[in-house]
Amino acid sequence: MATEARNLSGVVGFFSGPGAILKAMEKVKATGFEKFDAFTPFPVHGMDDAMGIKRSVLPYITLVGAITGLTIGFSLEYWTSAVDWPLNVGGKPFNSWPAFVPVMFELTILLAGLSTVFGMFALNRLPNLKDAAFDPGITRDRFAIWIGVPCDLQQAESLLNSLGATDVRKVYQEGWF
Amino acid sequence: MSAVIKNPGKFQMSSSITLVTGLMAVVGLGAFLVQLSTDPHRAWSSFVLNHFYFLTLGLGGIVFAAIQWLTNAMWSAPIRRILEAFSGYLPFVVLTMLVLFYGLHHVYTWTDVAMVSKDPILSGKSGYLSPGFFLARNLGAILIWIYFARKMIGNSVAQDANGDFQYTERNRFLSPIFIIVFALTFTMASFDQMMSLDPYWFSTIFGIYMFAGMLYSTLAALCLGTLYLKGKGYLDGLVNDNHIHDIGKFMFAFTVFWAYIAFSQFMLIWYANLPEETGYYLRRFNSGWLGLSIFLLVGKFLVPFVFLLPRGAKRSEARLKKVAIFMLIAQWIDVLWIVQPEFFQEGPRVGIFEILIAMGFLGVFIFLTLKFLSKHNVVAIGDPRLEEAVSHHHQ
Asked: Does B393 contact A55 at a Cβ distance shorter than 8 Å?
C-alpha cells in the first residue's frame, strides 16, 4: 500500500452482462468523469454511443493509403514501361493504361489494407506491453467499467455501487508481469 | 428486445397512382405504335432495350431476395417484401418476350436466312440462333423464373399469417436451387437477347456483365422503393438509418463490381486484340458512341463511387435518393450502349420517342410493383428475423 499514490490507476466495478454495462456506462458518462473505459469479452453494440466516442479517423487513413497505392502503381508502371525501358509489346503504346489498371488496383488495395491495420494499431496505442489486464475475467465472461485517476475515488466507488456493480475495487498499475 | 412490432398492412393504392402509371403506359404504347409505322428500325431498338432493362429489374428483385434467404440474412427482413414486389412485373415479361418474337427480324440480323446461308460463320451458328429455338428457350427461362418467384414469395406471404419458421426453411431449400438455375438461364438470356444483336461477337463474361448491371439497378430501385414507402410512413419503427446505410453499401459494392466486370471484359479483348472480338469495342469507340463509352467509365462508375464513398452519404436519404435515380439512368444508358450501336453505328439516337417508350415500360413496372404491395403486406411481418432486424444497428 506504500505505492498507492504512485501506482493507483483507478476504480473498477463489474456488471452482469452487456445490457447492464450499457445502462451503467451512460450514467458514468453523464456524471462527467474525465477518464473511463469499458472492458467486455466481446463487442457490445451501442457502447460507442454510451461512451460518447466520436467516429474514428481510421477511414481517412485508409483513403490516404488507397490514393498513395494508386499513384505509386501508376508511376511505377509508367516509369518502367514508358520512360526507363520502353518495350514494344504487341504494337501497343508504351503508356498503355488498360494494362496498368490491374497493378494499380492491387497496390490500391494493398496500401489501403496495410494502412488500415497499422493505423488501427497506432490509434489503439498497440502494441502495449506496459499495462496488464486487471482481471482475467474481462476476456472471458466479466463486464467491467473502469474510472481512472485523477478523480474523486469516493464518488466513483459509490456511483459504481449505486449502479449495481459487484466487486468494486481499486486497481493499480503493475507493469509488465 | 423491442416491443410489439406494428404491422403497417397493405399499400394503399391511390387512384392518382393508377391514373399516372396507366397514362405513362398508354402514352408509351402509343409512341411505340406511331414510331413502328414511321421508323420501325428505331422503334424495335427501343423495344428490345426497355424489354431487357425492365426484365432485369423484375428478375433482380427475386434474385436479391433469394440471396437473403440463402445467406440467412437478418438485416434485410423489413425491406425484403419490396424486392419480392419487383417480381410482380415478371408476368408482363412473357408478353414483351412474345412481342419481341413478333419483331424478331427487325432486331436480330441472324433471322435473315438468305444472309446467313451465304455466311460460313453464321451458318455454323444457325442451329442455335434460330427463331423457334430462341423463343422456346427464352420463354422457358422466364417461366422458370416466374415459377421460382411464385414458390418462394408464396412461402414468404403465407408466413405473414402465422410466422411459421417452416416457410423460411422451405425458402432456404429453394433459394440455392434458384440461384444456380438463374445463373445458367440468365447467362443464356443475356447471350441470346443482348449479345446476339451482333451475331459475330462473343464474350464469355457477358452474362456476368449483365448480372452486375442487374443488381446495380435493382439495388438503386430497392433504395428508391424503401425511401418512398418510408416517406409514406409504412416503415415507421421497422426501417432505421442502419438499413438505409446497408442498402447504400450494397449500391456502392455493385458499382465497384460492375466496373470490375466491365473492365475485365474490355481489358482481355483490348490485350488479345483479335479481329473476331474487337469489333464490338471499335464500334463504340471510333464513332459518335465514344462519348457514351466515356460516360460509362466516368458516370456509371466514378460518380456513384465518389458520391457513395463517405459514410454520411449512405446514411442521408436525400443524397442516397439522388444517387439511386442517377444509377437507374446510368444502367439504362449502359443497355442503350449495348443495343443501339448494333442499329445505329454513327451514334446514339435518343429523342422524344425513346424517352416516351421507356416511360411506358416504367409506368407498367411501377404499377405492377405497387399492385403487388397493395395485395400483400408491405413488410414480411411473419419473418422470424424481423424482431431482431428492426433493432438492427452497426457498431
From this structure: no
Residue B26's pLDDT band, with cuts at 50, 70 and 90, is: very high
Dihedral over Cα of B179, B185, B191, B194: its sign? negative
Residue ranges in chain A whose pLDDT is less than 70: 1-6, 174-177
Taking contacts as CB-CB distances below 8 angstroms, the residues of chain A near B271 are 90, 98-99
What ipTM is given for this predicted complex? Answer: 0.81
Answer whether the bond into residue A150 is a cis peptide, omega within 30°.
yes
pLDDT at B37 over 80: yes
Cβ separation of A98 and B266 shorter than 8 Å?
A: yes
Q: How far apart are CA B153 and CA B61, in angstroms?
A: 11
Q: Please give the C-alpha separations between residue B276 and each of B203, B272, B279, in angstroms, as whole numbers.
A: 10, 10, 7
CA distances from B386 to B1, B61, B77, B316, B375 (A): 11, 19, 5, 23, 20
A55–B395 C-beta distance less than 8 A: no
Q: What pLDDT score does A128 carry?
A: 81
Q: How many CB pairs under 8 A join A and B?
A: 23
Eight-class DSSP state of B3? -
What percent of chain B has pLDDT above 70? Answer: 98
Residues of chain A with CATH 3.30.70: 4-53+130-172
Whether the CB of A101 is below 8 Å from some CB of chain B: the reply is: yes
Q: Which residues of B touch A48 (CB under 8 A)?
A: 395
pLDDT exceeds cutoff 70 at B3? no
Handedness of CA B227, B230, B234, B235 (dihedral sign): positive
pTM metric for this prediction: 0.90
Residues of A in contact with B394 (CB under 8 A): 45
Between CA A146 and CA A11 the distance in angstroms is 6
Q: Please tell me the distance in Å from A46's CA to the nearest CA on chain B.
A: 6
Of residues A149 and B44, which shows the higher confidence score? B44
Q: How many C-beta neighbours within 10 Å does residue A18 have?
A: 18
Residue B160's pLDDT band, with cuts at 50, 70 and 90, is very high
C-alpha B373/C-alpha B85 separation (Å) is 6
Nearest by CB: A98 against B270, B309, B395 = B270
CA distance B369 to B88: 5
CA angle A153, A159, A161 (to 5 degrees): 105
Tell me the chain B residues in contact with residue A55 when contact means C-beta distances shorter than 8 Å.
311
Q: Which residues of B187-203 are buried (b: 16+ CB within 10 A; e: fewer)?
A: bebbbbbbbbbbbebeb
Question: Measured between beta carbons, which residues in chain A are less than 8 angstroms from residue B263?
Answer: 98, 101
* pLDDT for the residue A177: 41
Quick one: fold of A4-53+130-172? Alpha-Beta Plaits (3.30.70)
Of the pLDDT bands very low, low, confident and very high (cuts 50, 70, 90), residue B394 is low
